[in-house]
Amino acid sequence: MGVLKKFEQRLEGLVNGTFAKVFKSEVQPVEIAGALQRECDNNATIWNRERTVVPNDFIVELSAPDYERLSPYSGQLGDELSGMVRDYAKQQRYTFMGPIKVHLEKADDLDTGLYRVRSRTLASSSSQSPAGPAGAPAGEQRGGGYGYPPAANAPAAAPAGAPPMPSAPPPGAGRGPQARGQGPSGPLPGAQTRRWIEINGTRHQISRPTMVLGRSTDADVRIDDPGVSRRHCEIRTGTPSTIQDLGSTNGIVVDGQHTTRATLRDGSRIVVGSTTIIYRQAEG
């Protein structure tokens, strides 16, 4: 069973209690959980062959209406999201420099239903080395104060024999997801990536370098939605694949954020008009 599915099942027991109001929010907790997974993937730093360090300190920025709905339950929700990050990191064999914390913040520049995730790697005050295998860091605590500085973080001390942690990700790291079938420097030898999109349960294979989505009959994939422009957006395959708005009237939302261009990863959620598109890719 996937980590996100387990996360949803854990929350089910809370929906009938104090969490009932939370699920009326435009932003769903499972969307935030997926964004935290991507944040780990995008900012993973390889220390050596056996250790990949990911952020452990997260801020989820919400619109004012969503923040007002979710903030009364931020402690419980933060605990559940922290547990989800721990489970995902264990699955991916990631490690942490300190305890995992997830906090909510209000962002006045975001519209209802949109969110942003920021992260950093913080070393535990009692240890300067990574917190061991994900899921079992020594002395881990949940919750607590946040104190997120605007400046870039100073690098944490590296464990003996390991290369120093860079003060910032290398160019391109942490800005876009890494496509499946790739290593740190590109595709793995012999790996082939299949790409497709899913719209209302229908799968559309991406077999060319570009795929135009829109309401026009000339589009590669026609979307019968009055909120979709004739030539709304274009998916461009590559390493990684991207989506580009083509001057549409209503724009595109990718993984909860309004944008004109975005990097795509397996499971990325694209909204055009009132239609949701899921981007998929897999090796083989």
Automatic annotation (TrEMBL):
This is DUF3662 and FHA domain-containing protein. SMART domains: FHA. Residues 211-259 form the FHA domain. SUPFAM superfamilies: SMAD/FHA domain. PROSITE patterns: FHA_DOMAIN. Residues 121-192 are annotated as: Disordered. The lineage of its organism: Bacteria, Bacillati, Actinomycetota, Actinomycetes, Kitasatosporales. It comes from the Bacteria. It comes from Streptomyces solicavernae. The keyword Repeat does not apply. Residues 161-172 have a biased composition (Pro residues). Gene3D superfamilies: 2.60.200.20, FhaA, phosphopeptide-binding domain (DUF3662) (3.30.2320.60). The keyword 4Fe-4S does not apply. It holds the Pfam family FHA. Residues 123-140, 148-160 have a biased composition (Low complexity). Keywords: Phosphoprotein.
